[in-house]
Amino acid sequence: MTMIKKDFRNYIGTALGNFLFAFGLNIFIVPLGLYSGGIIGFAQIIRTLLSEYAGLQLPQGLDIAGILNFLMNIPLFLLAYRSISRKFFIKTVFGVIVQTIFLTILTIPQVPIIEDVLASCLIGGIICGVGIGLTLRSGGCGGGIDILGVYFSLKRSNFSVGKLSIVINAIVFGLCAFLFEIPVAIYSILYSVIMAQAMDKVHYQNINMTVMIFTKKDGISKQINEEMRRGVTYWKGAGAYTQEDTYVLVTAISKYEVATLKRIIHKIDPKAFVIFQEGMSISGNFEKRL
Q: In which domain, by residue range, is 212 found?
C-alpha cells in the first residue's frame, strides 16, 4: 500500500470515527442532560450555562458545544504545530473540524430515544468509544487531552496520559456535581467508563509487543528504522540444523504496527521466521504513539 493510499484510508477512518463519536454523544447522551469528559465536557458545561443561565437562544436541536470545543482547541493546535510535528498538527485540525461539523449538524432529539438512563449510557458509551478508538487507530486525534498527552509524553518519558485524563475528567465531573445534580455527574462518569472500555477494545496502541525476526536477508532492520522509526537490535547466529548464518533481530512495537512490520518483512524475506510476544511491559526509551 502506497503512503497516499494509507493516508487516504486513515483520513476516512478519522472522519468515520468522529461521526460515530458525535452520533453516540448527540443521540444518546446529550438528550439525557449528561456530559462527556475532557475538553468537550468543558464545552458542554459552558453551552449549558450560556443557554440556561445567560439566556442565549439557540435553535431547537442545535448544540454549540462542538463549536466551543473547536475554539478551546485553538491554543492546543498551536502547541501541536510548534512542539510536536506538522503531520500531527494537520491530522489533529482535520479531526477536530470533522468532529465539530458532526456535533453541530446532527440534530439532538428533544426526547431521549431510550428513556432508561443506564441503557442510554451503555449504548452511547459503546458507540462513542468505538468512534474514538477508530479515530486513534487511524492515526487521527480528537484534540484536547490527546494533544496534551502527546506533548507531555515527548517531554517526559515517565508521563502518564491516563493520569492527565483522570485529573481533567475529575474537574469536569466535579463541576457537573456542583453546578447541576449529583446523579448527572454519576451517570456521566458511568458513560465515560463504558466509552473508555470500548475505546480500548478498538484502539490497542497501549498493547506492546516484542518481536524476534530470524532472516538470512540483509536490509530489514534498516527498513524498520526508516519506515517505522523503531529501533532494532540484531546479532549474527547460525541454524542448529543447517549451520547456515542468519540474522537475529529484536524490536518492540505497538500492536497496531504489526501489519506494517509484517509487510516490511515479507517484502524483503518472505521466508523469514518471526516470533511475536504480546503484553509485556516496556521501560526506557520507547516512544508511545497514538
A: 208-278
CA distances from 247 to 62, 159, 216, 237, 250 (A): 61, 35, 6, 6, 10
Per-residue model confidence (pLDDT) at position 110: 86
Beta bridge partners of 248: 214, 235
In a domain, 55, yes or no: yes
Give 65-106 as a 3 state SS string: HHHHHHHHHHHHHHHHHHHCCHHHHHHHHHHHHHHHHHHHHC
How long a stretch of residues is the chain? 290
Q: State the pLDDT at residue 256.
A: 66
**Which residues, 6+ apart, have CB-to-CB distance to 158 below 8 Å?**
none
Number of domains in the chain: 2
Say if 288 falls within a structural domain.
no
Task: Show the low-confidence residues of the chain (pLDDT under 70).
Answer: 1-3, 58-61, 150, 153-154, 156-163, 203-207, 256, 279-290
Count the neighbouring beta carbons within 10 Å of the beta carbon of residue 268. Answer: 16
225 torsion bin: left (phi>0), alpha (psi -120 to 50), beta (else): alpha
| pLDDT of the residue at 198 | 87
Place of cell 504545530: 81
Cell numbers at 33, concatenated: 442532560
Task: Name which of 38, 256, 255, 65 is nearest 148 in CA terms.
Answer: 38
192 in the same domain as 240: no
At 265, which CATH number?
3.30.70.120
Residue 238 pairs with which residues in a beta bridge? Answer: 245
Would residue 252 be called left, alpha or beta, if left means φ above 0 and alpha means ψ between -120 and 50 degrees?
beta
Q: What is the pLDDT of residue 80?
A: 81
